[in-house]
Structures are given as C-alpha cells and as structure tokens.
C-alpha cells in the first residue's frame, strides 16, 4: 500500500506542471469538467465490469473492486453528499482559490490537510493517533514551510483565495473521513466512482459558460493527451489508491502522504518548467519525508467503522 501511495504522490505531483501547461490553452474549469467527465465514464464502466466478473464464473474479486453488500438508505445519502462536497466542492474551491492566491500560499494551506484529518479522525473516534504520528505531522508541516513558506505572503490581496483554499481543505477532509464508513461495506472503486459521477454533474453545469468560450479547434494534441492522462491517472488511478489506502491504513496515515506532493511537484517543475531548486527547499523535502517515516512508525492498528 505504501508503494501505491508513492505512485499516487508522483502522479499528483506531476499533475501541477501538466496543468500549468494545459491551462495556457484551456481554462481551469472547462479542463476540470472534461477530465472529470472522462474519469466518471471510466469508473462507471469499471464498476459494471467488476460486478459482472464477481457474478460470473471468473472467481473472486478483490474487495478493492467489488463487495456484495446492498446499499442502505444512509449509504445513498452518504454517496450523494460525498460527491457534492468531495468532488464538486473541492474542485471548485481548489481551482478558484488557486486563481486568487499564490501557489506558495496554496501549498502551505493544503499542507495543513494531514493535521486537520488526524485531528478530526481522533475527535470522532475513528483512529487512535499516537505521539509519533503527531511528531511526524509536525516535522512534515515544518518541511512544507521550508519548501514554500518563505515565498508565502498572507495579505488583503490574497485573503479571498486563502479562505477558499481553506474551504478546499475542509471539503477534502470531509470526503476522506466521510467515505471511511462507506468502505467498511463497499469497495473503494464503487465509492470513488459513484461519488465522482455525482459530483461531476453540477461541476460540469457550472463550467458550461466557460466551456463554450474555449477555442477547441486550436487546442494542441499535447494538451488533449494531458487531459486524457490526467483523467485516467490523477482521477481514476490516484483517487482509487487514496480510498483503498484509507480503507487499509486509515485516514490519518494516508493523508500524511499529501505533504510529499509539493516535493514531487517541485522536482517536476524544475525538470519541465525550469523552476530552480534551492538548498532550503532540499532541507524542507528531507523534513517532509522524515515526517512521513515517523507517522509510519507511529501507526496504531484501527478497526474499520461498521454500519450504524
């Protein structure tokens, strides 16, 4: 699972540089709406294929892809609000907030996600958080500051974007913790795919005016390739890994890997966009990785939440 989380981090880290290039030709919300639509279609087809395979003569299917439990009334409600909050809300807040604040401010705020998730998870009784985990979260957060903090500047000019980015953190924390109950009964593939499909509908409708203004005939082949790969890798594969990890490892430990994403993004930005890497950033990267290692040592076994 740790190896898959590293793959997820690489995919999401590369996504920043890919987005920056693609946004030169397609505005953020139309781009997001397109990739969410592609990813939703792939997820729904995969869910159908997993269900057919499980019911056929092909044998057992991993619980990551299929579970036979029927949907309860609460399950349906949870799928609805997780789709609206975790996909519609998060994507709208992240894309809008990033456009109103600096990348450094955004990275620092998103870096608070593991602490928010760990605190809420402990408060809700979902996980027992040990001292090593808290120590690792603090070390990792300090590393994020070394990577981007010296460039951050919170002021009246960015306050609106900063608040919206905080809303994005809240949406992602709710999505991560809210889905843990569902995945005690249903597969990560099903939960991720259905919530994404639900969240895509209002997001796509909100992006429709901007979508109609995009000069699609002039979009390059490279941008189309980026769009499709982002849908298949950053949404389909990486989201599935995220929720599979939440199911297997718990939300707090999974979320700490999000602190590694700015490090990978920094490395790819240096390679793809020519952005410089300083010694201070390298020190910060080391601190982030050390923090993740400490949370791994400090893991406390959890019992998945059952139906209530």
Would you mind describing this structure in some detail?
The protein has 308 residues and is an all-alpha fold. The protein is 74% helix and 0% strand. It is built from 12 helices and no strands. The model is unreliable at 301-308 (pLDDT under 50).
Number of alpha- plus pi-helical segments: 12
Tally of domains: 1
Tertiary shape:
globular
Quaternary structure of the protein: single chain
Portion of residues in helices?
A: over 70%
Termini gap: 28 Å
What fraction of the residues are assigned to beta strands by DSSP? Answer: under 5%
Counting helices, strands and paired strands, the structural category is mainly alpha
Mean pLDDT: 79
Biggest pleated-sheet summary: none
Strand and helix order: HHHHHHHHHHHH
Number of strands: 0
Radius of gyration, CA atoms, in whole angstroms: 19 Å
User: Would you identify the regions where 5 or more consecutive residues have pLDDT less than 50?
Assistant: 301-308
Please summarize what this structure is:
This protein has 308 residues and is mostly helical. Helix content is 74%, strand content 0%. The protein has one domain (2-56, 66-297).
Relevant terms:
single chain; 308 residues; mainly alpha; globular
List the helices and strands and how they pair.
Elements: H1 2-22, H2 28-55, H3 73-100, H4 103-110, H5 113-123, H6 131-148, H7 159-182, H8 188-212, H9 221-249, H10 251-255, H11 261-272, H12 279-297
Helix pairs in contact: 1-9, 1-11, 2-8, 2-9, 3-7, 3-8, 4-6, 4-7, 5-7, 6-12, 8-9
């Amino acid at each position: 699972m740790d190896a898959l989380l590293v793959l997820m981090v690489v995919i999401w880290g590369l996504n920043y540089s890919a987005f920056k290039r693609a946004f030169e030709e397609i505005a953020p919300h139309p781009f997001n709406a397109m990739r969410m639509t592609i990813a939703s279609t792939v997820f729904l087809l995969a869910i159908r294929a997993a269900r057919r395979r499980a019911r056929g003569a092909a044998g057992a299917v991993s619980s990551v892809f299929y579970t036979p439990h029927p949907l309860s009334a609460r399950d349906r409600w949870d799928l609805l609000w997780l789709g609206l909050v975790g996909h519609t809300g998060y994507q709208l807040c992240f894309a809008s907030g990033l456009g109103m604040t600096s990348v450094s401010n955004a990275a620092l705020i998103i870096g608070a996600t593991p602490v928010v998730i760990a605190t809420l998870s402990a408060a809700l009784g979902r996980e027992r958080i040990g001292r090593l985990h808290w120590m690792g979260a603090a070390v990792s957060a300090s590393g994020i500051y070394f990577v981007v903090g010296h460039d951050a500047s919170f002021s009246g000019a960015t306050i609106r974007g900063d608040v919206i980015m905080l809303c994005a953190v809240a949406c992602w924390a709710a999505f991560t913790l809210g889905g843990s109950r569902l995945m005690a009964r249903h597969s990560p593939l099903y939960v991720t795919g259905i919530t994404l499909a639900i969240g895509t509908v209002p997001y796509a409708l909100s992006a429709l005016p901007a979508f109609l203004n995009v000069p699609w005939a002039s979009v390059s082949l490279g941008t189309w390739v980026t769009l499709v790969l982002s849908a298949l890798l950053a949404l389909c594969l990486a989201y599935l890994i995220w929720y599979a990890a939440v199911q297997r490892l718990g939300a707090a430990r999974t979320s700490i890997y999000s602190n590694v994403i700015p490090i990978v993004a920094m490395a790819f930005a240096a390679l793809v966009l020519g952005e410089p890497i300083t010694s201070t950033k390298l020190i910060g990267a080391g601190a982030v990785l050390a923090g993740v290692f400490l949370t791994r040592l400090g893991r406390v076994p959890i019992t998945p939440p059952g139906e209530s």
